[in-house]
Structure formats: structure tokens, C-alpha cells
């Protein structure tokens, strides 16, 4: 029996209830996992089961600097061996920017084998010029570049229009995708209100500028957020900050193999 025999057997019998689902390698329907320090064994387990459902693993904030000797390199190689991109959290690059060590940071990332760089300004002010320079330097070095829009600091209001315009500029300057900040909590940040609900007016303003929704990765750590985004944009919406233990559950939501989205599929079928 081939390695993916059970998938083919299931798929001969059962179609995904909800829409089509892009297969890897893919440019849409991406899932980014936030990793706050999983061990090598845990990471291997995660990837053995889920490698077809994970596109990026982000090593949260500056955790990359705190691994025991040899373990970071081992983890990076393991993740890459499963065809998954890996990168340090945006906050870590922000630390390097404040210490005027952008080039050195990128060199170390390349040396260690990271495939991707996230350019963000969640905690620091970042001029347009420096932002562009970091994006282009990372891209020239062969990294896949993700950028992020949105602030982490309580009370710092950035309009949806400003976020969208920044996202458009980043894409023009070479970003592969733009992440909309949602943090690990999903509460009171980016386009989410204090309860984690997407603010409809802000979303509408934001999307008025974005003609290709596949360019956006939505940080959506909470199930209700994942469900709302799948309902709004379909199975192949890009989702980020997914906790490792939730990857299969998110995949089930995407394809309608969970009641919360299966009910959409039934509604379509029954035209109700
Ligand atoms: O990893 C980071 O630096 C943070 C972590 S969290 O999303 O704020 O919890 O995320 P990032 O999206 O990379 O800024």
C-alpha cells in the first residue's frame, strides 16, 4: 500500500463537502503555525501527520535565540525536509532593527537555514524607507518575504485604510504575502475587536484596496475567527498563528469536515 493510499481510498468514496482545496505546493490556502518552543520530537510528530496541511512554521518572537546548542539547526532542517517553510517571528527582526543589525540578522538567518523572513513593525516605528530596504535585501538574498501590518501596542490606532495601503506597497516591493496582525490572543488587535470578532466596517475598508485576497494571510488563532474567514473567503483563505495542535481541526474546517462549516455545504446543496 502506498504512503498516501488511505487518502486516495477516502477520496474515491467521499468528496470534500466544502469547495475545492488547493494541494501543496500552493499559493493560496496557506496555513502558518506559531511555534513557541516545540521539541524536535513534537515537531516531527506534527509534521508526520500534518505536512500536507502546513506551509509555514513561525518560531515565535525571539525564541530562535534561546534554543539549546544544535537544536535550532536540527529543527530547521527537519521542517524543511517536509517541504515546509520556516522563519523567526517578526518581533525578532524588530529587535535587530533597533540594534542596527539588519544585515547581520539576515546573514545569520541564511546561515542557519531559515527559508523565510517576516518584516513587521508591530512594536517599533519603522520608516517606509527602512521597511522597503529590508524587504528588498531579504528578497535579494533568496528569502521568501512575508510582511505584517498592524500594531501590537494597546491603544495605537492604525486605520484599516493605512494598513491596506501599507500591504499594497509591500506587495509592490516584493513581499510574497502580507500578514494581518492578530497576535496569539486574537483579541483587540489588527481588525479584531475586544472579543476577537472581525470589525466588519474595517474589513470592508481593508478589502476595498486588496484586489487579490490570496495575497493576505490572516492571523486567526481562535476557532470562531477561522470559521468566519473560511465562510467569507472560502476553503483556500490563508490563515496564520494556528496553534500546532489545531492544524488538523483547521483543515477539517476548511473542507467542511467539521459541523461548523459542513452546515454551509449542506445549505449550498439544499439551496437554503
Ligand atoms: O513571533 C512574533 O514575533 C509575533 C508573535 S505574536 O503573533 O504577537 O503572538 O508575531 P509576528 O506576527 O511575527 O509579529
UniProtKB/TrEMBL annotation:
It comes from the Bacteria. The gene is yitD. Belongs to the phosphosulfolactate synthase family. Its EC number is 4.4.1.19. InterPro entries: Aldolase_TIM (IPR013785), ComA_synth (IPR003830), ComA_synth_sf (IPR036112). Pfam families: ComA. One of its GO terms (molecular function) is phosphosulfolactate synthase activity. It comes from Sporotomaculum syntrophicum. Keywords: Lyase. This is Phosphosulfolactate synthase.
